[in-house]
Amino acid sequence: MNEPANDRTSGTSGGCGPARKRSAERTRTALMSAAAFRFGRYGYDGTSVRDIAGDVGVDAALVYRYFGSKEALFETVSSNRKVFEPLLDVPLDCVADWFSALIAGEPKDADFPHPVLTVLRSSSRDEAIGRFREELTDLFTQRFAARLDGPHAEVRAELLVAWVLGTSLMRGTIQSPALASAENQDVFEQFLRAGIDVLISPDAANFSQENAGRETCESVSPEADRDGSAETV
């Protein structure tokens, strides 16, 4: 969802403070996302501030307002660690909105490499995967998980980043029709927020405990009787 050029909020859910503050944070996050993709595809010299701002639908002046300079923006997004680090200071009830803005800022150009694909296509693939894992482990498994109440915080934190990266890949790079459709944007954001809220909510511990005792479905034979019955195996 592109922010309007005058930086007014287009409406967000949750109690993330004043509307103007929410809008400014969403715009800043979207600019970081767009910049990360453009710098990754075209490099520093081949990327302009105007292009980054255009991807998000705001005036280029906002880039200088939020980051000071093109060089400072490049330094901010030069690694996945720096892209995600602001999340550590975002109030938990605003995390879903933060991720929504991050994904909304991704260009829809299929030529832009997704961070996961960049790692997998690296000439030193094992080294790149190891580096990526270390960054995500530090930020999510350790530091972000420490902010979550209840058991299984590390699992929930890693599921969070897996959920967001996978959704981002499907929507931006693969461009699956339902997720990439502009008509489904509001519904997309609602479900994205719902999935994130489940993982970070203090009630997530209760959700896990309630489902732990559920009986699993019995395996059934692929050869079922014509009347619909099946042989359990």
Verbal overview:
The chain contains 12 helices and 2 strands. A two-stranded antiparallel ribbon has the order 1-2. A hairpin with a 5-residue loop joins strand 1 and strand 2. The N terminus is likely disordered.
Short structural description:
This protein is mostly helical and 233 residues long. The protein contains twelve helices and two strands; from the N terminus they run H-H-H-H-H-H-H-H-H-H-H-H-E-E.
Write the layout of secondary structure elements.
Elements (H helix, E strand, L loop, with lengths): L18 H24 L6 H8 L4 H7 L2 H7 L3 H5 L10 H10 L10 H6 L4 H20 L8 H21 L3 H4 L4 H16 L3 H9 L7 E5 L5 E3 L1
Antiparallel strand pairs: 1-2
Helix pairs in contact: 1-2, 1-6, 6-11, 8-9, 9-11
Output the keywords:
233 residues; mainly alpha; two-stranded antiparallel sheet; 12 helices; 59% helix; disordered N terminus
Largest sheet: 2 strands, antiparallel
Report how far apart the termini are.
49 Å
Q: In sequence order, what are the helices and strands, one letter per element?
A: HHHHHHHHHHHHEE
How would you classify the quaternary structure?
single chain
**Residue fraction in strands:** under 5%
